Amino acid sequence: MPATVTDTVLSPINIKQWVEDHIDEFKPPVSNKYLYLGKDFFVMVIGGPNARNDFHKTDSEEYFYQLKGDICVHTIENGTIVDHVIREGETFFIPPNVPHAPQRPPGSIGIVVERNRPDGETEHQQFYCPSCHELVWNEEFDCKDIVEHFSSSMESFWADDERATCSNCKTRIKKPAPVARIETEPDVRVIREGE
Ligand SMILES: [Fe+2]
Fold first, then answer.
1. pTM of the predicted model, to two decimals?
2. Which CATH number fits domain 15-192: 2.60.200.20, 2.60.120.10, 3.40.50.150, 2.40.50.140?
Protein backbone atom coordinates (compact mmCIF):
# COMPACT_ATOMS: atom_id res chain seq x y z
CA MET A 1 0.00 0.00 0.00
CA PRO A 2 1.34 3.51 -0.74
CA ALA A 3 2.85 5.17 2.31
CA THR A 4 1.09 8.48 1.77
CA VAL A 5 -2.46 8.85 2.96
CA THR A 6 -4.59 11.10 0.76
CA ASP A 7 -5.17 13.98 3.21
CA THR A 8 -5.50 16.97 0.89
CA VAL A 9 -8.27 17.81 -1.54
CA LEU A 10 -7.25 16.58 -4.98
CA SER A 11 -8.63 17.76 -8.28
CA PRO A 12 -11.22 15.46 -9.84
CA ILE A 13 -9.76 12.62 -11.85
CA ASN A 14 -11.03 11.30 -15.15
CA ILE A 15 -10.64 7.60 -14.47
CA LYS A 16 -10.49 6.43 -18.09
CA GLN A 17 -7.74 8.99 -18.82
CA TRP A 18 -5.94 8.06 -15.59
CA VAL A 19 -5.94 4.41 -16.62
CA GLU A 20 -4.51 5.32 -20.04
CA ASP A 21 -1.76 7.34 -18.35
CA HIS A 22 -0.84 4.45 -16.03
CA ILE A 23 -1.58 1.52 -18.32
CA ASP A 24 1.92 0.04 -17.97
CA GLU A 25 1.42 -0.31 -14.22
CA PHE A 26 -1.64 -2.58 -14.50
CA LYS A 27 0.13 -5.94 -14.52
CA PRO A 28 -1.28 -9.43 -14.03
CA PRO A 29 -1.89 -11.43 -11.95
CA VAL A 30 -3.89 -8.76 -10.10
CA SER A 31 -3.77 -5.72 -12.45
CA ASN A 32 -4.70 -3.13 -9.87
CA LYS A 33 -3.55 0.29 -8.78
CA TYR A 34 -4.54 2.51 -5.87
CA LEU A 35 -6.52 5.62 -6.77
CA TYR A 36 -7.12 7.00 -3.27
CA LEU A 37 -5.77 5.90 0.06
CA GLY A 38 -7.85 7.43 2.81
CA LYS A 39 -7.84 7.09 6.55
CA ASP A 40 -11.04 5.06 6.58
CA PHE A 41 -11.07 3.37 3.18
CA PHE A 42 -9.15 2.99 -0.04
CA VAL A 43 -10.17 2.96 -3.67
CA MET A 44 -8.54 0.79 -6.31
CA VAL A 45 -8.88 0.85 -10.06
CA ILE A 46 -8.59 -2.63 -11.46
CA GLY A 47 -7.93 -3.33 -15.11
CA GLY A 48 -7.85 -6.46 -17.12
CA PRO A 49 -6.82 -9.00 -17.93
CA ASN A 50 -6.13 -10.57 -14.59
CA ALA A 51 -4.74 -14.07 -14.29
CA ARG A 52 -5.76 -15.52 -10.96
CA ASN A 53 -7.92 -18.30 -9.60
CA ASP A 54 -7.53 -17.57 -5.90
CA PHE A 55 -10.41 -16.44 -3.73
CA HIS A 56 -10.12 -13.57 -1.28
CA LYS A 57 -11.97 -13.60 2.06
CA THR A 58 -11.93 -10.91 4.78
CA ASP A 59 -14.18 -9.71 7.57
CA SER A 60 -14.57 -6.45 5.60
CA GLU A 61 -17.12 -5.40 2.99
CA GLU A 62 -16.17 -4.66 -0.62
CA TYR A 63 -17.93 -2.41 -3.10
CA PHE A 64 -17.55 -2.88 -6.87
CA TYR A 65 -18.49 -0.51 -9.68
CA GLN A 66 -17.82 -1.65 -13.23
CA LEU A 67 -16.81 1.36 -15.31
CA LYS A 68 -15.90 -0.35 -18.58
CA GLY A 69 -16.47 -3.86 -19.92
CA ASP A 70 -18.10 -6.85 -18.25
CA ILE A 71 -16.44 -9.04 -15.63
CA CYS A 72 -17.35 -12.21 -13.75
CA VAL A 73 -16.98 -12.57 -9.99
CA HIS A 74 -16.97 -16.10 -8.59
CA THR A 75 -18.26 -16.29 -5.03
CA ILE A 76 -18.57 -19.18 -2.62
CA GLU A 77 -22.18 -19.39 -1.42
CA ASN A 78 -23.48 -22.37 0.55
CA GLY A 79 -20.39 -24.35 -0.34
CA THR A 80 -20.56 -23.97 -4.10
CA ILE A 81 -18.97 -21.66 -6.65
CA VAL A 82 -21.50 -19.10 -7.96
CA ASP A 83 -20.82 -16.93 -11.05
CA HIS A 84 -21.95 -13.28 -10.99
CA VAL A 85 -21.56 -11.37 -14.25
CA ILE A 86 -21.13 -7.65 -13.52
CA ARG A 87 -21.81 -5.69 -16.66
CA GLU A 88 -20.50 -2.25 -17.55
CA GLY A 89 -22.38 0.30 -15.48
CA GLU A 90 -23.41 -2.22 -12.85
CA THR A 91 -22.55 -2.27 -9.18
CA PHE A 92 -21.95 -5.14 -6.79
CA PHE A 93 -21.53 -5.54 -3.05
CA ILE A 94 -19.69 -8.32 -1.29
CA PRO A 95 -20.62 -8.85 2.36
CA PRO A 96 -17.93 -9.77 4.89
CA ASN A 97 -16.51 -13.30 4.82
CA VAL A 98 -17.79 -14.21 1.38
CA PRO A 99 -14.90 -15.69 -0.63
CA HIS A 100 -14.73 -14.01 -4.04
CA ALA A 101 -12.60 -14.26 -7.17
CA PRO A 102 -13.03 -11.55 -9.83
CA GLN A 103 -12.27 -12.52 -13.45
CA ARG A 104 -11.45 -9.48 -15.56
CA PRO A 105 -11.05 -9.55 -19.35
CA PRO A 106 -8.73 -7.23 -21.30
CA GLY A 107 -9.84 -3.62 -21.57
CA SER A 108 -12.19 -3.78 -18.60
CA ILE A 109 -11.94 -1.15 -15.87
CA GLY A 110 -13.48 -1.59 -12.45
CA ILE A 111 -13.51 0.39 -9.22
CA VAL A 112 -13.25 -1.41 -5.90
CA VAL A 113 -13.67 0.28 -2.52
CA GLU A 114 -12.51 -1.45 0.66
CA ARG A 115 -12.04 -0.31 4.22
CA ASN A 116 -8.63 -0.14 5.80
CA ARG A 117 -8.35 -3.23 7.93
CA PRO A 118 -8.61 -2.77 11.68
CA ASP A 119 -5.62 -4.01 13.67
CA GLY A 120 -5.65 -7.76 14.01
CA GLU A 121 -7.96 -8.44 11.07
CA THR A 122 -6.62 -11.14 8.83
CA GLU A 123 -6.90 -11.79 5.14
CA HIS A 124 -7.57 -15.20 3.69
CA GLN A 125 -6.31 -16.34 0.35
CA GLN A 126 -8.13 -19.50 -0.65
CA PHE A 127 -8.27 -21.88 -3.55
CA TYR A 128 -11.39 -23.90 -4.33
CA CYS A 129 -11.47 -26.91 -6.63
CA PRO A 130 -13.08 -25.92 -9.96
CA SER A 131 -14.39 -29.49 -10.34
CA CYS A 132 -15.90 -30.37 -6.95
CA HIS A 133 -15.83 -26.91 -5.21
CA GLU A 134 -13.90 -28.27 -2.23
CA LEU A 135 -11.67 -25.85 -0.32
CA VAL A 136 -8.17 -26.91 -1.40
CA TRP A 137 -6.00 -24.34 0.36
CA ASN A 138 -6.53 -21.57 2.88
CA GLU A 139 -3.79 -19.17 3.86
CA GLU A 140 -4.42 -16.59 6.54
CA PHE A 141 -2.21 -13.61 7.11
CA ASP A 142 -2.12 -10.14 8.52
CA CYS A 143 -1.80 -8.27 5.29
CA LYS A 144 -0.52 -4.75 4.84
CA ASP A 145 -0.17 -4.84 1.08
CA ILE A 146 -2.59 -7.03 -0.80
CA VAL A 147 -0.96 -6.18 -4.13
CA GLU A 148 2.50 -7.59 -3.40
CA HIS A 149 1.63 -10.26 -0.87
CA PHE A 150 -1.18 -11.88 -2.80
CA SER A 151 0.87 -12.16 -5.96
CA SER A 152 3.82 -13.93 -4.33
CA SER A 153 1.57 -16.14 -2.24
CA MET A 154 -0.43 -17.40 -5.23
CA GLU A 155 2.74 -18.01 -7.25
CA SER A 156 4.10 -20.32 -4.56
CA PHE A 157 0.78 -22.17 -4.36
CA TRP A 158 0.59 -22.81 -8.11
CA ALA A 159 4.16 -24.17 -8.08
CA ASP A 160 3.43 -26.67 -5.30
CA ASP A 161 2.03 -29.99 -6.58
CA GLU A 162 0.95 -31.20 -3.17
CA ARG A 163 -0.84 -28.06 -1.99
CA ALA A 164 -2.45 -27.39 -5.37
CA THR A 165 -4.04 -30.82 -5.77
CA CYS A 166 -7.63 -31.29 -4.54
CA SER A 167 -7.64 -34.04 -1.89
CA ASN A 168 -11.25 -34.88 -2.77
CA CYS A 169 -11.10 -35.37 -6.57
CA LYS A 170 -7.36 -34.98 -7.39
CA THR A 171 -7.87 -31.99 -9.70
CA ARG A 172 -4.61 -30.07 -9.99
CA ILE A 173 -5.18 -26.30 -9.72
CA LYS A 174 -2.77 -24.72 -12.16
CA LYS A 175 -1.51 -21.22 -12.73
CA PRO A 176 -4.20 -19.70 -14.96
CA ALA A 177 -3.59 -17.83 -18.20
CA PRO A 178 -4.94 -14.28 -18.38
CA VAL A 179 -8.68 -13.95 -18.96
CA ALA A 180 -9.45 -13.53 -22.68
CA ARG A 181 -13.22 -13.02 -22.50
CA ILE A 182 -16.37 -13.84 -20.52
CA GLU A 183 -19.08 -15.91 -22.23
CA THR A 184 -22.59 -15.89 -20.79
CA GLU A 185 -24.53 -18.14 -23.17
CA PRO A 186 -25.62 -20.87 -22.61
CA ASP A 187 -23.68 -20.75 -19.31
CA VAL A 188 -21.27 -18.31 -17.75
CA ARG A 189 -17.74 -19.31 -18.75
CA VAL A 190 -14.42 -17.59 -18.27
CA ILE A 191 -12.31 -18.15 -21.41
CA ARG A 192 -8.58 -17.76 -20.92
CA GLU A 193 -5.81 -17.01 -23.39
CA GLY A 194 -4.96 -20.12 -25.40
CA GLU A 195 -8.33 -21.85 -24.86
FE1 LIG B 1 -11.95 -31.42 -6.31
1. 0.91
2. 2.60.120.10
